[in-house]
């Protein structure tokens, strides 16, 4: 029953975020909170320099008053949209400036944490039922590593897996981040779609990556782990590992329906006729759990000879079984820890593998972060003698494969990596260099 004129006086004291929130109350408040006079005042105080305000001509001065031509000629909400668009551009510019410096060892942005903090970036998953109903799960736990971040959701009240169709992973940023305050979950936010996974027939279509007494883990590319209560079709937790390569861009620059598209690589022409097809590549490999690291190393001067191309792949040998000097151990008891509000545990012989392969120019060529598990080799193996056990772990996607062979040394109670080979898809190389294999 309060007159609109009085309501407008009250709304004029609100900040931008409060105006956007109050506009969601009902249609009446939406139209009032769209007032061009209020938003032009906010826009001017933020984007028009004070020095300019003092030097403009008298007719220009009227453009920032509540009774100017700019207000009469603009549709309702015009200055609100202009303010929001400029704020988005300002945030993107600030974030892109932070992710521009690159670590010389990994070839990745070295200020990811600072960029995430500056943007107020977080992640959510949306579980969609077969009838269209959606459940939003906020993040609960973050773990940063050298080249990736692991996110664990252990919310209560998970819907039954049988009624779910898809899981969507979003990066979420406050629409108008305030550097002096922590981002509010109730404020206006923008979503950027990172990945979408099908949960239909999860146990049949995905890869089982291990189990303990309470849960069984299933993996979906890229980097998703769904933990199910053992013997039941109910979700215990969801874990995602995201590689730093284009992490902020994919989490912030996409839309709610379309993923961020990576810019195409400009082919580097190479007319030198040598016996090598790929040379001077660098691999940064990180194998870790949620809170601990089992190995982190860099391997330089990797190459692929012309004779190492077969079955649609170029082979890069990182560690050879015959070269004992390059064998290296995994430190600690390998396992992937998990927790819910009530229970916690560790799935043995399972971990997250981060791979960053840099080309000859130091540019990230192939990057991923994904869960892997160590599977015991059946029968006699040439990797070890009868006292030790041999294991293998593999990963594959559309761009390449990685094969790691390990030996369990009973005397020292540790794994040793004795063979490590990368297989790069010829299609990937062709797209990168503009060649044809």
* Integer average pLDDT: 85
The poorly predicted ranges are 51-67
Counting helices, strands and paired strands, the structural category is alpha+beta
* End-to-end separation: 75 Å
Report on this structure:
The structure is a single chain. The protein is α+β, with helices and mostly antiparallel strands and 437 residues long. It has three domains: 4-84, no CATH class; 112-177 and 187-251, no CATH class; 281-433, no CATH class. It is 22% helix and 39% strand. The chain contains twelve helices and 23 strands. It has helices at 4-11, 16-22, 27-32, 36-47, 50-55, 58-61, 69-72, 78-99, 112-119, 202-205, 247-252, 426-433, and strands spanning 122-129, 134-138, 141-144, 148-153, 164-174, 189-198, 207-211, 215-220, 224-229, 235-243, 276-288, 293-305, 309-310, 313-319, 328-330, 335-339, 344-348, 350-358, 364-373, 375-376, 389-396, 400-409, 414-425. The strands form five sheets. Strands 13, 14, 15, 20, 21, 22 and 23 form a seven-stranded antiparallel sheet that branches. Strands 3-4-10-9-8-7 form a six-stranded antiparallel sheet. It has a four-stranded antiparallel sheet with strand order 2-1-5-6. Strand 9 (224-229) and strand 10 form a beta hairpin. Helix 4 packs parallel to helix 8 (78-99) and helix 8 packs antiparallel against helix 9 (112-119). The radius of gyration is 27 Å and the shape is globular. Residues 51-67 have low confidence and may be disordered.
